[in-house]
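2 proteins. here.
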Amino acid sequence: MGFDAGFDMVPRLSRGTADIQLWACFITVVKEYYKDDAQVELKPNYILFKVGEHPSLPFDGAKFLRFSSKVSGGLSRHAETYIRTVTAAAKGIFGPRVQYWNEGADQVGYHSWAEVHESIRSYDEPADSEIPNPKSIVPRATGTDPKPEIETPLFEIKELPGKGRGLVARVDIPKGTRILCEKPLLTARSMPPDELELVLAIKLKAMTKTEQRQFFSLHKNFPGKHVLGAIFRTNSLPCGSGSPVGGVYPTICFINHSCLPNSHNNWNTCNQDEHETIHAIRPISAGEEITIPYNDGGLFAARQAFLKQSFGFDCQCTICVLPPAQRRDSDARRVLIQNLDAAIGDPMRMVAKPAESLRDCQTMLRTLNKEFADHPGAHGCSLYYDAFQICISHGDQARAGVFAERSYKARVCVEGEDSPETQRVKALSVRPSSHQSYGLCSMKWKRTKSMVPKGLDEAQFEAWLFRDGR
């Protein structure tokens, strides 16, 4: 006889986008973990565990109710180890929906055996939906769930009060982590509403049913007859800075906006494999919402107007709900950032007064750190590169090399090592003189790359780097 043990999925999984993606991720984790185990066999429609009573996991999660087996008696055959390991993996992804039970502890499953047997019989029936490739959807990191070697997703899609669905960190995510890498469901250029509606309809018709469901599951903030265009307009992100082409994504489009984001989105064209990446620009705690900026910043009123017009919502992020006095302080810092950016970008000033331009970079860095809580993200990448250009255009390879290295490290954090721009700046950090602007303005600051001073403390080094006091 013996006791049964296992886990039930409560409530059972739906055919919604979030459940499909999480189940696909779970199946991939199980496949990877048991890829060299002779007791685990991949069938056309499910994974079979040849232990105990041969429990199985279907590829279609909506069919699944229970994973269990005898764990004592003649049929156990080491089944309990597999039951506990798979349960740990499931808990790491689905949390409290996974209900473990063990008859040896007077516990029983949630679903009736009649329901369970019916669900198992359905495993060999054709799936009603296609299961997306989780490698393009959900990245994984080693978590802290019951079995630490089982990999779990970094995030989950949850309903958030006043926001609809959003991405929430499941584990602590270190700064610089690539949270997500995803290709767009579809892309489209900016065009009149009637034309866009037709283009989207044609593209949707060519997509799979799963992709179509993913598109229609996205939020729509704009009323009117152009339903497809409204979904696209609400969710699309530009495919590169300033690009007239926008893309919508099955998972990334659930990431909500913040004017003080903890993550950065970037269009990556590495090896012509175009995709959008999401990186943590500061440490993100488990349970914290993952956010990105939908705009380039600016003052409170301008941000609110842009977000309302472009995405159809009023921002209620931590910056936008500050008391009026603190919000005015934030606006003042952002005005200063805008003015400094304009001054630093003035080519005539860089030629005639490079030391002032460099000190403006130092002031801007301090202001960015204050406004963005010491995590300026992509702003830091640009600032260090501006400082690099000022120095290299006057022949200073020593300072230029330091600034290029800082820009490179900042880009690794917000874009990843494989970003073409990251690789370009990395090359400049090794050989600053390879930049086309080397000595373009003058050679009055001429220094070789090896002339970086040694033995300075941090304050002294920063003063040297920004030519503070010279």
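next one coming up
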Amino acid sequence: MTKVFVRPRPLAAAEERDAVVCYNWEHEGRALVVPRLPLSSQRFVSFAGVLPPGNEAAYDQAVRPLLSPVLAGGTACCFAYGHTNSGKTHTIFGYGREIGLFERAIRGIFDARDVAEWGMQVRFYELYNGKVFDLMDARRPGFVREDADGGINVRSETVVGAQGEVMTQGLRAHYGESADDVIAVIQDAMRHRAQGTSELHHQSSRSHAVLELELVTREIAEARSELELTKAMVVPAGKARDDLYIAIQSKLYVRGDDGKYAPSGASVPVEESNRLSDLEAKRHLETATADSTAMIATVSSSLNNLKKAHDTLKYAALVAEPRSTQGK
């Protein structure tokens, strides 16, 4: 189940004369009451809470709990959903002097690590006008592919080798061993995002940005980089996690004295590849928890945007409500 939080945005300078919509949170009934809506639609009872305006308090309530499953070897996801000018970019990436949730999460992870053997690998891309662009590689075009198992994989451009072989490449990744290093790289990549002028400011995002943060050792990060071009020829792209590619390919390739990889002559049965995939999936199911995904529904407090806010809340309620209870 995804925990869904609502975050009302305060009025902007251009909205000072607008009437204000008050989003009231009833702690005892855990219900969100939105005045001015029709009686049949003004009460939402499936949300986890209402986040305050400041990003620091919002981080403590919605994002900090996600760090534990990540540090335990699992996965977590946090995303913002809302209408235009509702504060999505401000919430996740910050604005002006307001630090975004992503930076607070990165610093929280590095502060909590108990050993210095691992760092963080970053991938950062955006979806804009139906296309994918790698923000870590100066907006190099990418592609979204679906594998035989229905998994979605975002890849970079297809490369044709000297012998005519076709190879797929992953997005450019950066490995950092400090919070400052990782944050600086992400902030630099932000320059490549598609932006435009909105009713409220001149730096309104025009795309859906996806930031992937993964905890790995330097050895794995370097091995991924060196094996990237051979990966697609060993296991179909997207068949398993990158760590499994490394485990499988360690039997297929050996590293010579010159530091380069060469075929070892060994083979890995398909059954073993599938077994490794099953074990990895089981591990993530065991380490993931019901609290490992947080959705932040951002809405405007201006009465002029009430219809848009209402639509956002209705969709957010569907996400928050257990599927077994929908339609009852």
